[in-house]
Amino acid sequence: MSVTPDVRIQCEDFDITNEISKLSAGRGDVGAVVTFSGICRDEAGSLSALELEHYPEMAETEIKRIAADAIKRFELSGITVIHRHGKIKPGENIVLVVSASPHRHAAFDGAGFLMDFLKTRAPFWKKEHRLDGSEEKWVDAKDSDDSAIERWE
Amino acid sequence: MSVTPDVRIQCEDFDITNEISKLSAGRGDVGAVVTFSGICRDEAGSLSALELEHYPEMAETEIKRIAADAIKRFELSGITVIHRHGKIKPGENIVLVVSASPHRHAAFDGAGFLMDFLKTRAPFWKKEHRLDGSEEKWVDAKDSDDSAIERWE
Amino acid sequence: MKLVYFAWLRERVGVGEEEVELPATVATVSDLFDWLNSRGENYQEALKHPDVVRVALDQQHEGDRNASIAGAREIALFPPMTGG
Amino acid sequence: MKLVYFAWLRERVGVGEEEVELPATVATVSDLFDWLNSRGENYQEALKHPDVVRVALDQQHEGDRNASIAGAREIALFPPMTGG
């Protein structure tokens, strides 16, 4: 397979319809496209923004490696990963994975695999800024994210 | 939970970005949105169109039932299902599921569950029309679709 | 009682729906199949592989051939579904 | 040799990156931690829970504290990742 993942790390938002169409338009072999969008939550209504710091060279290398692995494991027709950095407001997009395949289970697995690895292997860190100006706080890593990887082993 | 699934059976195409935004805009609790798009395949380049016949009253009732079940099982923040009928050309959308949740695994499970049940429980039938005018042919159901349901039991 | 047919079952029967008066002896799904088979070659052709025929009573899946059809207003017969 | 720090490790060390001349005795990741601890309170504060500190050698994850750092041009220290 000579499918190359499309990996972008950027400040700007993305358009999901457009990203799906880049992977599927004009191709007869794509029967299933799964997208995952990660959105900045704010249940308490107290968040001003999430600030995403990242390690640029490593983030790109690492996500490309994980995405190439997903293509091989699930025989995907294509995969796109867009991870934003900088300040992101509640309700805004943080990350997008688009996984395309002839069949639905492969498309689901590709996107699920990518997100599980992204959570614990991609060098991004989130800091919370509060509306009331209280001290900024780095988000803690979750044990559940570590264990989510195990199901792919 | 008083979440009601948004189920539509229609001829018209849909816009995925728009459908995601309907489920997530202005809500602080949605952190993860998974979409599944089923697209009309044509690997051989010989298909003129898929014609989708359906049982209108039952299709809507049945999909609403499956979607309500998904909301309860996975505690979804929302779910949208759009299934098209009529003639659909290669590369065009057939079906869309959008599943929203605070957390990613629930959003993935919601969309995966819905698609597995839709495939074998929603009263739709596909007929292939060929470019060369050869006899139209009803698509056979797949055993793998029947067994895909078992993982949710 | 309304009978509705879909996909190749509809094509083989020759109509999408019909109103029928069922004899009092037709009590179950299985009885309905027998009765339809007695109505002509088109029905026999449609029901020739009865195991693949799916049934819905008033828009609800009914997998049991011995299920009673008493009280049903609409019975649908169709092939395995291929939506999604 | 370039050292880079991210998130709260960067804040505690006080710089995002620095060029250092490592003594010849610093051969492994573990040695690097010891050497950094000897450089001042800010490093001690940054490395005070060494188990949670993640390490990348030339942009590759390195989970083994006994791994050799010989030949590495850039070593990154950071907390567990919280992307996605």
List descriptors:
heterotetramer; A: 153 residues; alpha+beta; Aldehyde Oxidoreductase, domain 3; 4-stranded mixed sheet; 4 helices; C: 84 residues; Ubiquitin-like (UB roll); 5-stranded mixed sheet; 21% strand
Structure description:
The complex is a heterotetramer, with 2 copies of chain A (153 residues) and 2 copies of chain C (84 residues). Helix content of chain A is 34%, strand content 32%. Chain A is α+β, with helices and mostly antiparallel strands and 153 residues long. Chain A has one domain: Alpha-Beta Complex (Aldehyde Oxidoreductase, domain 3). Chain A has a 4-stranded mixed beta sheet with strand order 1-4-6-2, sandwiched between helices. A 4-stranded antiparallel beta sheet of chain A has the order 5-3-7-8, with no helix packed on it. In chain A, strand 7 and strand 8 form a beta hairpin. Chain C has 84 residues and is of the alpha+beta class. The model of chain C has no long low-confidence stretch (mean pLDDT 97). Chains in contact: A-B, A-D, B-C. Strand 2 of chain A pairs antiparallel with strand 2 of chain B.
Q: Give the tally of β-strands of chain A.
A: 8
Q: Structurally, how many domains make up the residues of chain A?
A: 1
> For this structure, what is the CATH homologous superfamily of chain A?
Molybdopterin biosynthesis MoaE subunit
Global structural class of chain A: alpha+beta
CATH architecture annotation of chain C: Roll
List the helices and strands and how they pair.
The complex is a heterotetramer, with 2 copies of chain A (153 residues) and 2 copies of chain C (84 residues).
Chain A: E1 6-10, H1 16-24, E2 32-39, E3 47-54, H2 56-74, E4 78-84, E5 86-88, E6 93-101, H3 104-121, E7 124-130, E8 137-138, H4 143-148
Parallel strand pairs in A: 1-4
Antiparallel strand pairs in A: 2-6, 3-5, 3-7, 4-6, 7-8
Helix pairs in contact in A: 2-3
Chain C: E1 2-5, H1 7-13, E2 17-19, H2 29-37, H3 41-46, E3 54-57, E4 60-61, E5 74-78
Parallel strand pairs in C: 1-5
Antiparallel strand pairs in C: 1-2, 3-4, 3-5
